[in-house]
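Lab notes, practical 5.
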Amino acid sequence: MKTQSFKKEETQHNWVIVDASDKVLGRLASKIADKLRGKDKPIFTPHVDCGDFVVVVNAEKIKVTGNKFEDKKYYTHSLYPGVGFDADIKACGACREGCNSRKTIAVTFIVANDENYALAA
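Output from the prediction step:
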């Protein structure tokens, strides 16, 4: 039996809706990254885009474990020197009513963990 290598025309992209309420940030990010890349499918081929489109709802209700709420910093950068930012959930004001910083950090963390970040935009 030969190993099959699938082509772009043979793949099918589905839409997946993920409810992030009361989910742990890192574990959810890992599962979404697998969905975006297509590693959860039996037809996964590394050089072919066989991932699904992912929509995350209720991202403002995501949980973090341990002391990450106060201590952990999330970094993002554009590979240009001096361009980028770091943020933590507490200092951004996630405790305030109507602030979307927890949602922003969750989406940034999820997108940064996947090579196909353009699919999430």
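Observations recorded by the TA: The first helix runs from residue 25 to 37. The beta strands are 15-19, 53-57, 74-77, 84-87.
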